[in-house]
Write a structure and sequence with these properties.
about 120 residues, alpha/beta, Nucleotidyltransferase, domain 5, 6-stranded mixed beta sheet, globular
Length: about 120
């Protein structure tokens, strides 16, 4: 399984679309066996769910995300986990242990970036 974590400087970002990069963790038998960081190619409506799906992501972890993005990820059968904070790898590992539960944190106003 591949887990994508929206991050800024290795920390989970508050709003996935405005992150600087995505940490992509590959899991095998419950452990992370590979990590790569890919720069965010840009935030345009509907692009990032397709982009991450093409990279093989089955889960996206972020601090917050807009409702439209959540819907688009769900359409791509990518699980959305919001409300995460802290270190990107720790968030992915917590997810694998079943300890990271989505808070359903939805950003309602893009103009208020950072207030998700």
């Amino acid at each position: 399984m591949k887990i994508a974590v929206a991050c800024d400087g290795g920390l989970v970002t508050e709003h996935f679309g405005h992150c600087e990069a995505f940490d992509i963790y590959t899991e095998e038998i419950g452990s992370i066996v590979r990590h790569e960081r890919v720069q965010n190619p840009g935030h345009t409506t509907g692009f990032l769910p397709v982009y991450l799906k093409e990279m093989g992501a089955e889960v996206i972890i972020s601090g917050g995300m807009g409702g439209s993005a959540v819907r688009l990820f769900n359409e791509k059968e990518i699980e959305v986990v919001t409300g995460a904070r802290g270190d990107s790898r720790f968030a992915a590992e917590s997810y694998l242990r079943g300890e990271l539960v989505s808070t359903g944190s939805i950003c309602h106003e893009h103009m208020h970036h950072g207030e998700c």
